[in-house]
Each structure stands twice: as C-alpha cells, then as structure tokens.
Amino acid sequence: EEQLVESGGGLVQPGGSLRLSCEASGFVFTSHYMNWVRQAPGKGLEWVSDINTAGGISTYADSVMGRFTISRDNAKKLLYLQMNSLKREDTAVYYCVSGVRYLFGSWGQGTQVTVSS
C-alpha cells in the first residue's frame, strides 16, 4: 500500500521559516515525480512545487518562487519543502503528492501550516 506521511507543520510568525517532510513507503519512490500541493482555508487546491525523480529539476508556483525549495532524499525515501519568508497567505494544509503535475497518484494526510503573529 502506497503511503505518504507529512510532518513539520506548525505555527510560525510572518517572515519565519518551516521545513516540511514527507516519508514515503509502499512504492518505488525513485520512480515517481513528487509534489507539494496546498489548500488554504475556504479555497481550492493549489499546486506549489514538483521535483523530478533524480531530484535535479524542480518547478514552483509563482506565489512561492524564490521563497520555497523542494528537495528529496531518495535513499531515505523522503521529500522536503523548505519554506522561508513565510507570509500569512501561505497558511494552508500542505499535502505531499506522488506523480507528475495534475496526474497525481497518492496523497498524504496533510500537515497544517499557520502563519500568524
């Protein structure tokens, strides 16, 4: 069974940083593109970032470009999202998702990120 488990969310002040992690199991991690997708309160899903299988190519939504960095450790089956210069509008549930963009496979349960003073 494919499983993705996110961690690292929490409450942070505007301008602060957080690092999200996602642990994968039950599938060949190295064969899958991976994504971060978020959902803000009362809004729809927003794709945030993706990374290729080897970890050398990543893309970002305009809203997070230059502030967020996606990475992966294939040996440990871990996906990361380093979030810097956080803004109130980054408040959302963040999901780890397998697959190429918009052809998503498995989803994690999500981790809450709240940016507030």
Give a written overview of the molecule:
Helix content is 0%, strand content 54%. It is mainly β and 117 residues long. The strands form two sheets. Strands 2, 4, 5, 6, 9, 10 and 11 form a seven-stranded mixed beta sheet that branches. A four-stranded antiparallel beta sheet has the order 1-3-8-7, with no helix packed on it. The radius of gyration is 13 Å and the shape is globular. The mean pLDDT is 97.
Terminus-to-terminus distance: 40 Å
- Helix-strand makeup class: mainly beta
Sketch the major β-sheet.
Answer: 7 strands, mixed
Instruction: Tell me, rounded to a whole number, the average pLDDT.
Output: 97
Q: Uncertain runs with pLDDT below 50, 5 residues or more? A: none
Give the CA-based shape.
globular
Radius of gyration: 13 Å
How large is the share of residues in beta strands? Answer: over 45%
The number of helical runs is 0
**Element pattern in H and E:** EEEEEEEEEEE
Q: Tally the beta strands.
A: 11
Binned, the helix content reads under 10%
